[in-house]
């Protein structure tokens, strides 16, 4: 399955890559001067192909010569407007070039996107119309690099400076660009305010805003204990995730195998409940499985929060890594089959619903898989679906193995599925259901007939198109989840502040706390009326009660209006300004 095409994948020759590497150093301000301090034997690393966290050395264009960079390898919109102006193209053409090159809407171009942009400029200069399919042209490699007026002089000037300074480079200490990793250090967060100049992407901006404005509020009112663990650097940089949920033998593991067109380490497929653990399928340099305890403590992985579910869960959690182009852009989460019938009475050794809810908050898409012969929604499955509250926009329903029934039966199965979902999903909207048989076997045409086969093919194309859009929407999804978290943290602070205010100063604190917990619904209503908040944004009442019972309300911080005002300002001004600064520079 093709998700994104890098510069190398669309026919960018090594010779052109070398040319674009020199151009990239010019377009990336400060790149030349900083690279003078690097050894010419050292191969600098830049973030490749859309800022997905891979280093340039691991990207498909790694065979090209070393690419100069200023530490982050990013050409922002402001930089691009100056450099792209040398092409002589109209503003409308350059707007389209940027929109296609920055398809993930991150607000900058890495080397891969920059090379793709140069190829698009070549096409436009040759009189071709620029469209989303332009990078798929088979004759793309036959086009020469674009004509950039005045670029030769800039290149000659930069080379002259390099030749003058290079003899001293071995004695000059290297200067590193600011690392966003340090923003998550408590000491540095208190002492150093990250300058705006260090922010070169939407994600970097969100990291800065989280550390400076949202995290202090979360820490003060223990939001991480009630809702979600504190965010780390890896949470922002993680690839988009797709989680598959369903009863056993509905084809979850087979579905992932079908998309990858190959097996993955640790995959077990069978009619019995074969997947007995949560398996994260992600990109890696070689094929291997990593135990849950190991993967949960790795700082560069977004799974640190899973340690709160204890060793019983981590023993049922593992990471499957393998090199695959699809996994460079998407991570899959395979889950154990949801239990039904008598099996539900056997309690799992960990909080299955809680783990599912944790992954649901992190994932970009949640696929609910059903089998025509397993349409009943068990009590555990109902609890799991209920735990997805607040993530309904991520849910996609897949009626898998649909070629096991004929057309008439399929019609009845579809109706029964919609009826069952209507009882569980408390929403008036009808869920989109994809119908098909998502495996490597040909469709059973004898059962569904030619019309059914055509239907399955169209449904599969629609689902794959939906999945292809995930990387492009990943940055927008990060912003959406960040705003959702900020609003939840603000409401949490209001609730804790209200409870703290109701506590007596001296005597009877234990009785007062118990009274507040028993009448928590009334306290929620007071907060809602006082601050004019929507009822749907409040946390789950029973869960909040359960966690609150383990704390002494009197120990919480009093309401701090300045902290809440900082979050309000962030939502009202900082985030809109951030999105505006890193939108298409030709808008």
From TrEMBL:
Which residues does the UniProt record annotate as the domain Dynamin-type G? 236-472
- Show where the EH domain sits: 66-135
GO BP terms, alphabetized: endocytosis; protein homooligomerization
Membrane topology summary: Peripheral membrane protein
Residue ranges annotated for the EF-hand domain, each copy included: 89-124
Q: What's a Gene Ontology MF term here?
A: calcium ion binding
One Pfam annotation, family name? Answer: Dynamin_N
Which PROSITE patterns is this protein grouped with? Answer: EF_HAND_2 (PS50222), EH (PS50031), G_DYNAMIN_2 (PS51718)
Q: Where in the cell is it found?
A: Cell membrane; Endosome membrane
Q: Name one GO cellular component term.
A: plasma membrane
Q: Which UniProt keywords apply?
A: Calcium, Cell membrane, Endosome, Membrane, Metal-binding, Nucleotide-binding
What superkingdom does the record give?
Eukaryota
| Protein name per Swiss-Prot or TrEMBL | Dynamin-type G domain-containing protein
Record organism: Triticum aestivum (Wheat)
Lineage at the top is: Eukaryota, Viridiplantae, Streptophyta, Embryophyta, Tracheophyta
């Amino acid at each position: 399955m093709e998700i994104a095409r890098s510069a190398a994948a669309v026919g960018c020759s090594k010779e052109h890559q070398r040319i674009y590497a020199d151009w990239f150093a010019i377009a990336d301000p400060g790149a030349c001067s900083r690279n003078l301090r690097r050894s010419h034997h050292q191969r600098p690393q830049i973030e490749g192909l859309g800022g997905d966290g891979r280093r340039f050395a691991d990207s498909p264009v790694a065979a090209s010569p070393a690419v100069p960079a200023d530490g982050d390898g990013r050409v922002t919109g402001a930089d691009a407007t100056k450099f792209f102006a040398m092409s002589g193209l109209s503003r409308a053409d350059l707007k389209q070039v940027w929109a296609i090159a920055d398809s993930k809407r991150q607000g900058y171009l890495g080397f891969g996107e920059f090379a793709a942009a140069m190829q698009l400029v070549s096409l436009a200069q040759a009189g071709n119309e620029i469209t989303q399919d332009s990078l798929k042209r088979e004759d793309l490699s036959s086009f020469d690099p674009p004509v950039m007026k005045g670029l030769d002089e800039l290149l000659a000037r930069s080379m002259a400076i390099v030749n003058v300074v290079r003899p001293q480079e071995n004695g000059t200490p290297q200067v590193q660009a600011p690392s966003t990793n340090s923003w998550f250090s408590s000491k540095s967060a208190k002492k150093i305010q990250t300058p705006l100049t260090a922010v070169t992407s939407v994600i970097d901006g969100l990291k800065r805003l989280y550390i400076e404005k949202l995290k202090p509020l979360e820490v003060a009112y223990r939001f991480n204990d009630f809702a979600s663990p504190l965010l780390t650097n890896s949470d922002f940089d993680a690839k988009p995730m797709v989680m598959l949920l369903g009863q056993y033998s509905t084809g979850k593991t087979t579905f992932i195998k079908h998309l990858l067109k190959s097996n993955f380490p640790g995959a077990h497929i069978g009619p019995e409940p074969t997947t007995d653990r949560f398996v994260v399928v992600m990109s890696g340099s070689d094929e291997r499985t990593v135990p849950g305890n190991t993967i949960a403590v790795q700082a560069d992985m977004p799974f640190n929060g899973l340690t709160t579910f204890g060793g019983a869960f981590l023993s049922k959690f593992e990471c499957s890594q393998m090199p695959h182009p699809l996994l460079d852009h998407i991570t899959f989460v395979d889950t154990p089959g949801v239990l039904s019938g008598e099996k539900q009475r056997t309690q799992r050794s960990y909080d299955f619903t809680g783990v599912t809810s944790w992954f649901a908050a992190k994932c970009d898409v949640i696929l609910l898989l059903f089998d025509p012969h397993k349409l009943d929604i068990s009590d555990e499955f109902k609890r799991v679906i209920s735990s997805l509250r607040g993530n309904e926009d991520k849910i996609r329903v897949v009626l898998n193995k649909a070629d096991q029934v004929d057309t008439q039966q399929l019609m009845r199965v579809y109706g029964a599925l919609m009826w069952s979902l209507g009882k569980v999903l408390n929403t008036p909207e009808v869920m989109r259901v994809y119908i098909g048989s998502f495996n490597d076997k040909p469709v059973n045409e004898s059962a569904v007939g030619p019309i059914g086969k055509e239907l399955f093919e169209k449904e599969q194309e629609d689902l794959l198109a939906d999945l292809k859009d995930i990387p492009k929407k990943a940055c927008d999804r990060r912003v959406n989840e960040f705003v959702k978290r900020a609003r939840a943290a603000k409401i949490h602070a209001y609730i804790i502040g209200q409870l703290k205010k109701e506590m007596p100063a001296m005597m009877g604190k234990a009785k007062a706390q118990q009274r507040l917990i028993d009448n928590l619904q009334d306290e929620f209503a007071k907060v809602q009326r006082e601050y004019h908040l929507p009822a749907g944004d409040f946390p789950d009442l029973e869960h909040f009660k359960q966690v609150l019972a383990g704390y002494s309300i009197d120990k919480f911080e009093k309401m701090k209006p300045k902290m809440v005002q900082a979050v309000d300002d962030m939502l009202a001004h900082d985030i809109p300004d951030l999105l505006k600064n890193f939108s298409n520079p030709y808008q």
